[in-house]
Write a structure and sequence with these properties.
143 residues; alpha+beta; Fusion Protein Consisting Of Minor Coat Protein, Glycine Rich Linker, Tola, And A His Tag, Chain: A, Domain 2; 27% strand; elongated
Length: 143
């Protein structure tokens, strides 16, 4: 399974602005407060958020934990999936989503792997931890 998958990981910043939630359900007061806290892009912070141990450790984590979904393999699905998320001031990852689907099984795997990540070192502005937009590109290539 993993032998059929070549993994390359790239991290990049997203465009400016927060992403409003369009859920029809009532939000808790904590969720409402979080939406009022600004979310910065990588080019707007003094120190960008980082995966613990840096890019090398992030790539190692992805290669060790990423699974090849059988349904996607069966359908011959491949391509580069982008998983977008917010790195919170405590390093936790929220608002995890795949804006452009490649295949439902690949999308689910991309979300699963980001949810499984350890807390990141948060971004900083004026020495204070801030929320930051982030994106990870995960190319899925079947042999």
């Amino acid at each position: 399974m993993k032998k059929n998958l070549i993994i390359a990981i790239a991290a990049a910043a997203l465009t400016a602005g927060t992403t409003p939630c369009s859920a029809q359900t009532t939000k808790t007061s904590q969720e409402q407060l979080l939406q009022q806290v600004p979310v910065y892009d990588q080019n707007q912070v003094e120190q960008p958020a980082t995966f613990p141990g840096g890019m090398e450790k992030q790539m190692k984590f992805m290669m060790q934990n990423l699974k090849n979904p059988k349904a996607a393999e069966k359908d011959g699905a491949s391509g580069t999936m982008r998983v977008h998320f917010i790195i919170e001031t405590d390093g936790s990852l929220t608002n995890i989503k795949v804006p452009e689907s490649i295949h439902p099984a690949l999308d689910a795997e991309g979300i699963r792997i980001v949810k499984a990540m350890p807390k990141w070192t948060p971004a900083k502005v004026n020495g204070k931890a801030v929320r930051q937009n982030a994106m990870i590109a995960i190319p899925f290539r079947l042999k």
